Queue: 3 jobs
Job 1
Amino acid sequence: MRKIGSGREAEPPSLLRRVMAIIEVKNLTRKFGDLVAVDDVSFTVEEGEIFGFLGPNGAGKTTTINVLCTLLRPTSGEAWLNGYHVVRDQAKVRRSIGLVFQEPSLDDQLTAEENLNFHAILYDVPAGARAKRMEKVLKMVELYDRRKDSIKTFSGGMKRRLEIARGLMHYPRVLFLDEPTLGLDPQTRNLIWEYILQLREREGITIFLTTQYMGEAEHADRIAIIDYGKIVALDTPDNLRGSVGGDIITVKTTDDRLAAQEISQRFGFQVSEGQNGLHFEVQKGEEFIPRLVSESSVEILSVNLRRPTLDDVFLKFTGRRIRDEELSAKDQWKERMKSRHRGRGHGRGHP
Amino acid sequence: MHNLKAIYIIWYREVLRYLRNRSRLVGSFGMPILFLFIFGSGLSPAMGGLTQGIASASPMAPKGADIDFVMFIFPGIIGMNVLMGSMMSGISIVWDREFGFLKEILVAPINRTAVAIGKTLGGSTTGVIQGLLLLVLAPLIGVSISAGMVVKLVPLLFLISFSITSLGVLIAARMKSTEGFQMIMQFILMPMIFLSGALFPMRDLPTWMNFLVKVNPVTYAIDPLRKIIFEAQGLPEFVLEMLPQAGLGVTLFGHAVTMQEDIAIIALFGAVMIALAVWMFNIQD
């Protein structure tokens, strides 16, 4: 009988296993018929890192995860996880990873404990270690008091937390979180993030997450921005923001058309017209505002200056924004259905 | 070893879910009660004694040695209940897919074969329970139960249930949504039940129908059930021997099919189904 966990310390040298980053992806492509969901993507993830995939719905985030966790075969290209090839060495890859899917995946007719136990046996966690491990992961997500309760009585946030706990039951090296907070309210979202950050500190685990929320991507050590199946940028959040250039100034005037012309002619900035007025990038924006106000011939109604955000980074690399309000009608419907599935609320398990 | 444990836990979940689902337990009595007490009692007077025509030809025919319609359909109704329960269990893979739980199973470091077999064994177990539960109705329709009969029924019900659950798993292996459920019930399960001799004697049937009944594997599942239950009713030997002539047993090319042959046919069907189910389930996207 093979024991999970023991494989890590006393593994015989294998030809299949390569010394490399915890996740290594080379020229990965996955097509569904004519649709190219993931298009020639390459990246590496280092051990212990929080790595984020940021992109709108349908950008190829989940498809990439599904390939990395062996649920989908790549059309071309290769990927290794924990040194194991995702096609040739599936069982070993699966033992190395924990997964929290985008859609809930608990059996709601079972209790929390039964769900974890089911998982532990599927992953061959030794019987002796099972109870202790269960206690540890349940306490970590503050659901230990609710362990005997049916999942039916759990709120959306509690289910998510339990799924995170379940993903950790078998001591994975990498935890995949596919949109871990989609459809949850902001308070629950923060709580989930508390656990994720704690996890990295305590367990030293590598976390691979996907998100379409800018604020969430900020927590990652490195972010890959993915759009139409391609990685358009990959760096730390700070460096990405730095790449945008200067501060972002939004101006509202009585005649935006004329003002835009004036600003681009006189100061040489690229001006874009948005719903809230004119946007442009300026180095040292706070020094520029007085100049603008005194030199403009058009009456200025308001001026707004802000530092670049990941949203601006996304805009720069893709020419579009991915704000919640700009989700298509279909996406919004999908999200609503999801949040309904997951329920609202966020109870911490201590009423 | 690991895969055996996986089969066990998948089986265990299936049984636990079944036992926990009170409405499914209670609901499984609905159809049988309708069939036995309404349909059965309604048709019984019109049908008369099913073995009478032949029995009266025999000079030794004693009174009360006949089989009435309700008693006739009882084994068929048990079979029908097992079939429905098994099919639902097999198809429940689609529910698991829809509610996301299947992903949790598919991404685990276990064989897909173990998943299909665990699921099928789970469905078989619930099928046996669902079939045996109906025995509580037996006294109400004058069917007597003996320990020997139950002992013979259990493995047979398991075999039947295993075959049909495998068929369900096979259908569910590539099915993406629950929308096809209704269609499967209407176009696969119900025809299999209606064409199995579960609900009417197989005597003087139109040629086309006779053909469909004989090629239907479920026919060979209902037949041994009927044999076991009738044998336990203390009917005279000659009544049991006439069953095939009266259309209450299966005849194939003029030969009355024996219990062993029934079991061999249903076992073969089950083996083919589970092999196909495992194969389909192993195809990866």
Job 2
Amino acid sequence: MPPENAGYAVAAYIVAAVILLGYTGTLLRRARRAIDRARRA
Amino acid sequence: MTASEGAESLVRRGTVITAAALLGVAGVYVLAWGYTPIEARQGVAQKIFYLHVPSAWSALLAFSLVGIVSALYLWLNDPRLDRFAAASAEVGLAFSAVMLTTGPIWAKPIWGTWWTWDARLTLTLFLFFLFIGYLALRAALQDPGERARFSAVIGILGLLLVPFIHLSVYLFRTLHPQPVVLKPSRPSLPPEMLRTLLISGAVFLLLYIGLVTIRYGLALAEEAGEHGDAA
């Protein structure tokens, strides 16, 4: 009988999604701001 | 094409690749939970492996490329190489963050502890700190030539750590499992697990390419903003 530890797996999948989506969103916001600044320069 | 148009085009292309890769990651979630069997000894926590291992592969690939490209920069002095190294280092840190958080969440139910100072874990944490230092150094130096040269040296030092991290499970007594795919003999996994792991590896590689493309475009746009939008 496998041990009952599904909560850890769910937590890891949520943490990974938060890091990957959070970084992607931040990167896109930084890129948009930098492109706006470059256009004005 | 002006520099800002070039940056915009790169960011657009990177966004498309990243969106496709994130859809792929969602697919990996479905495969991991709906397709792969529950491992008999580790239980459901073993499914963390489908995120932890590909994020470790991507992080080590990212940091290895920083080192290789940094060495090339010191030789060729091409600013594109420096831009790529900075992009790869930052994206590598994002993948390392996934690796260094999912690892302890797996370790707690399997090892009974969140963290142990064994060779593989400690060296990986050092690599993470080294590349935080790399980005801090880049942020602190204003002169582009000086910034590129000094950070290239740190990037090469990071590359030297990568083979030690891969081989640490053979060189030292360690709790960390030995490689199941990247080893001289055949992969030791049931086919459903191996297939899901390889798909996840490919998806994380695509995500690396997408994020580095956006980050490279961002660096181009920042340079255009600082020095004027030259054609």
Job 3
Amino acid sequence: MEKVSITIDGYSLEVDSGKSILSAALEADLYIPHLCHHPDLPDAGECRLCVVEIEGRDEIKTSCTTQVEDGMVIHTKTEKLNAMRRLSMELMLANHVDDCTTCPKYLKCELQSLIQYLEVSTSRLRRTLNSVPVNTENPLFVRDLNRCVSCGRCVRACKELRGVDVLNYEMTEDDRVMVDVKNHHTMAEENCRFCGACVEVCPTGALQDKEGVFKPNLNRDLELIPCKAECPIHTDVPKYVRAIKEGRYQDAIATIREKAPFPHSLGYVCMAFCESACRRKEINQSLSIRELKKFAAAKDEGLWKEHVTYKPKTGKRVAVIGSGPAGLTAAYYLTKLGHEVTVFERSPVAGGMLSTGIPDYRLPREAVQAEILEIERAGVTILTNTKIESLEDLKNKGFDKILLAVGAGKGNRLPIEGADYSNVYENIEFLERASLGNSESVGEKVVVLGGGNVAFDCARQALRLGAKDVVIACLESREAMTASEEEISEGLKEGIRLMNGRTFLSIEGSENKGTGVKCQEVSSFTFDENRKLQLEVKPDSEHVIKADTIIFAAGQKPELPKQWEVPVKKGNLIDTDDEIRVKGREDLFAAGDAVYGTHSVVQAIAAGRKAASVIGQELNGDWDIEDKLANDVAPDPFLGRSEGFLKTERHGCVDSCFKESAACGEAGRCLQCDLRTQITRPKLWVHYKIK
Amino acid sequence: MVLKEREQWKEKSVDEIKDFISNVYEKEAKSPCPVDRLKALSDSLRRKSCGECVICREGILQLSVLTESITQGGGREGDIDVISEISQDMSIGSGCDFGREVGKIAKDIIESEREQFERHIKRKRCDALVCKNFITYYISPEACTGCNQCAKACKAESIKGSNGLIHIIDSASCTKCGDCELTCESGAILKSSTSVPNLPTIPVPVGSTPSDSSQGSLMSQRRRRRSE
């Protein structure tokens, strides 16, 4: 581009022609006061703060709307200009509430920073406040026009940057001009896309996010993208959702793969914390993020594989005990870091809960096995049917570090009479037997004791194994059950009967065979200060639920062989520093449910990633497990107008997976919160060299 | 809420804008008092600003609020400087010709009538007898015919008197609405911004003169109090 020479306040600059005087100055670290200028928006010259004098010209010019010309000699801080600026500021402040300290933007406000710079107050002028009620009609933004200085940035952001064109200058009843939603409509009526660009560019506290929409004190990339922030592995949700919308399925799966080696499994069973955080839920329903992930995983052609980085072999060896999602994730990333990893699995199949805990009607085994195969292809050795008796032996075999990822696989049996009859099972034991095909033991009448998701897994699995009458009995009321709403309604649909508010006295039976569960009805229960259960039992409510098979689903805990001598705390959980390093054991690490108790698959994957980083750091100082698998396609900040956007309802999955059109449609519901992070945050005057 | 269109001055020519403004000036700003004139002009024109530039949107509004305050006796030292500065900055620093032209007219008024503005602010006087807070209505005892029409017209019931008597305005309760002035056919209702002459203190028969009254005790000359 052609260069021109200009002089600003005595500094000679060579700048691209076509630039505005303001941009040229700011880029040269020369500050000119400005408010309505925003680096990402077209300039309008509305605030009149950036006025300059150009030698040889009579007119005062706004530097944001005046292009540089060769030979220009520009003055930015003359007495006359300073006085004009101060007057413009005074005029804005006359029409602005002055209780700065109660404003959410306090100390982050561009207007406040300018008041400081220009040293102005409102005392000379008459107040021209136009008191209006704070507008909270929409679910995501607060509009406090008492704090608006009509700089028009939001109007330009909405119109020029996003093409949505919802905001404008509008006349009030008193013929005053204020920024408002067009035609004084609600934001929804004008088909706002709720992208947040207006809030992002607002220099004052006039446009704010509603409290609680974002979690504070995160870095900007996570704070503004709640789905990504809530995901334990910070999957770039908007990025892959956008890729699906645009039909770039391989980019979508590669984006998911950057954070987890189990995308398809997650697509089936992830607890989807992202969906609970999704801003779209405030408008109608959250995006079907998990279904979209499953869709992308099903479309996987493996193109991401060529981008995976494998670091040079280090010669270090790591033993991982347990092949659940935590163990295999750690093994995968450690292998990529160049270490030699062997995974030991006591069960005949690898995968932990993915293969033997979660019933196959929820998580097809082929999906899991394909993902495990991929991990083995990366170089991980998995030894099944291998029980580790001694950690010392492993050390002696040359493993430098050992990771315990044994999960929490031991179900709790209530200490009641008859609990050890032969037809009484623990949850995980029962599910594992079912998964491995040892299901000869299910009778016609099955009673599951417990009210969580695992109880439903057991009950629904029992139905599939031929049980005719399945009852879930638990202490909690229907509302207080910890199982997800989805599980409960699916279970009820399949014919499971719920018996809430029951306490269990004993298991009736004889000759090592239970025939029923003796219960009492509970009117209320509390926990005392020692967290001991206090029950209030309904009088004369004793009864027996007949059963051929009885399953305890009352939580589970890690199973740790005594001779390992692993330090444990309450609930037999492994005692660690930072949830990875086993207390007092230099070469021993732990990750997953064995550390923090039963949790989600995605949490286990996060733990596996962290373990790989920590162990990598310990082995050779390399903790960096990040992969760059997806193509970077810059998102289009221009959203355009869309009439039906806000009304489009969540599209759940109909059969086993989305059809393409449904997936693209659902992905189109995304509010694209990540676009906001691409908007430049303007620098304040203190950050410029020459002020 | 009623939807109102904004004017788009940026798209209009200087001549169109000049025409528009002088038209408003002629129609709305006919008052003989220059402060009142600037008040009427700025109140009308602030409603026509497209509202995008600070100096025009807030500047004209400030002029309107300020002149309103001055005409009501709320003028402060420094107001004239603010008016001069706003009109000056508007005339050279507005984003389009609308602001510039409004600035020029305002500047003309404040520069040529500075003294009148000062009298309003410092002495609380309106020489043109327009700004109601600065004037007192009274009835000329010589001209009053005792027809009682003014008392009937007074909504505030501030006029004492009945047929055949010289009427008296109670200045404490008078709202200075001017209805009496319009009603009076004999031109007896007068205004003053300084002092009022000797007046009867109670209604006396039409034709009485100050010398008729007993030792003048029923007549008094009052100076306008500064606070009125």
